[in-house]
Amino acid sequence: MKKKAKKNSPRNSSNDRGQRLPNSTIVTQRTYTIADYRLEKPSFTLRQVCKDDATCYEIEGDLSASVPPIRESKYLDKKQCLEIYRWMLLNRKMETALENLYKQGKVVGGVYFGLGQEACSCASAYALGPDDWMGPMIRNQGSLLVRGFTARDIMMQYMAKAGSPTKGRDASSHFGDIEKRNVVAPISTLGDLIPVLAGVALGARLQGRDIAVMTYIGDGGQSTGVTYEGLNFAAVQNLGVVLFVENNLWGYSTPADMQFRVKDLAERAIAYGIPGVIVDGTDACQVYDAAHEACERARRGEGPTLIEAKMMRMKGHAIHDAADYVPKPLFEYWRKRDPITRFENYLVKVKKWLTPSENEKLIADVDRELEADRDFAVASPMPEPESAAGGVYCEEGCHEFQPKYGTPKTKVVTAGRLKRVEAAVHLK
Q1: Do 168 and 303 fall within a single domain?
Q2: Would you call 38 a catalytic residue per the annotation?
């Protein structure tokens, strides 16, 4: 896909092509390429209408296209594909269990679903190495599973149990692990994870390492000012931020067609001077390949990448939202493109890496694991009231964190007869 922009100054690009018009004005044309890995490019729009004094949306466009095949991965082998498939299954089944626990009154607060987004969460996190970092969002429960958290961790967290990652102090997805799993907890203020993860990459560079740091933002949150500030800083400093823009078509109840004017959010990468990539967010192979290449760039010190994953949020904003504003044909269109069904078909019928009986056994194993974790989480105790005061203020030993990647680099600066030690300059 070619994106063209006309500028009135020849200084904008080294490969500008200048053309002098009769009035001596120089007009330059700059051409940008946004890599698009999709095998299908849906073409439909949502239009706001009012019926019976209620606001609703109608869909316009062709919804009859057949489901595209999974794109062959350039990097994944059989074992890796099966592992990603298992994470996706566990992600889906865990959220189904959480929905049931909520209806039983055992969940404190709400539940945020990633239904239809499992391929994006699991395959993207799978591309990270042990030294890389991740900052998930509320729908990236699959990313947390891949990164080492268990289903019982997540279910205990939603039930505010004493054994949860936050010891019952939070009843949603706001938890991480900066000591062992390199996971920064989600931040409710959308976009704020981006400068935080840029800071993590900067900290690693000061210790002499270039690493990949991955975080996520939705199509709505991508329009916040802090998204620009964080990604622009990462671009200027060539920090290894891999930003997944999860374009799931709805910012709460506002459709993407009413949120921004660009056709593809990946186009915004042009403004930062970084690569922009589009993938089908329901195709695990496409997601992984784009994430893998972006992480490799990051580890080579070549800077950030913006990846737009297009898919559909198949539930409301949270469990309290029935999503009645979504046109039913849109649900049906994306239900046929269910990421787990597509990947299962790819593994069983296309690649024949799983026989039907092996697939049934794998699913049964996931069910047994989840049932054990759910029973453990339900039986776990609630926190003691006296523990509420713990961890509010800094306690002895709570900040004894050592550099992960080595001693920060320094240099000796001589000014006249005086010498002083300064941190290594990190700015370009």
Answers
A1: yes
A2: no
